[in-house]
Amino acid sequence: LNGNKMIKLRDILKEIGEGVTPYKWGIDRESEFEVQYGFDTDSNIEYQVNFESFAEGDTWDVSFAAREDRTTKFSTNVITNKGEVYKVMSTVFDIIKDFVEEHKEVFQLKFNAAQTGDDASTKSKRNKLYMAYLKNHMPKAKIYSGEQDDVIIQL
């Protein structure tokens, strides 16, 4: 392919999630230091998106986890392979936008991608995907890598 026709990863990532309707979600639990959102996918995978503050302050940790069977615990290491990644990501970022809008005192979000099994490269790949997605959907935020591969989002 010549330079004009070559598809660039940056262009692909910019389009990820655009035009994808998120799943319906709701707040499952809310307290002073924790907010938990939930949603179900078309293939009946249940997701939780958690925001947690460990002290009074303006930084909140963000995590999301899934479970395929309602009799099991949620896990950040679930590999679903149901072809729903873009809709799941669209939903997670819709929830993040809602959280930030509802909690104006929040200055910074922090998350760390889960590693799949013994494959440490999956953590790095996921962090890169999340960062690219964030930069596209939260263009005014400052997004960078922190300690221990944390992704920091300054609002």
Folded structure, characterized:
The structure is a single chain. Helix content is 27%, strand content 26%. By secondary structure, it is an alpha+beta fold. β1 (25-30) and β2 (34-40) form a beta hairpin. The protein is globular. It starts with 8 loop residues before the first helix and ends with a strand.
Provide a short characterization of the protein structure.
It is built from 3 helices and 7 strands, in the order H-E-E-E-E-H-E-H-E-E. It has 155 residues and is α+β, with helices and mostly antiparallel strands.
Describe this protein with a few key phrases.
7 strands, seven-stranded mixed beta sheet, globular, 155 residues, alpha+beta
Rg over CA atoms: 16 Å
Overall helicity: 25-40%
Number of helices: 3
How are the strands ordered across the major sheet?
Answer: 1-2-3-4-5-7-6
Q: SSE string, helix = H, strand = E? A: HEEEEHEHEE
Question: Which word captures the global form?
Answer: globular
Alpha carbon gap, first and last residue: 39 Å
Q: What is the overall pLDDT average? A: 79
% residues in beta strands? 25-35%
Identify low-pLDDT runs: none
What does the largest sheet look like? 7 strands, mixed
Give the beta-strand count. Answer: 7
Quaternary assembly: single chain
Class derived from helix and strand content: alpha+beta
Secondary structure elements and pairings:
Layout: H1 9-15, E1 25-30, E2 34-40, E3 46-52, E4 59-67, H2 85-102, E5 108-111, H3 121-137, E6 142-145, E7 151-154
Parallel strand pairs: 4-5
Antiparallel strand pairs: 1-2, 2-3, 3-4, 5-7, 6-7
Helix pairs in contact: 1-3
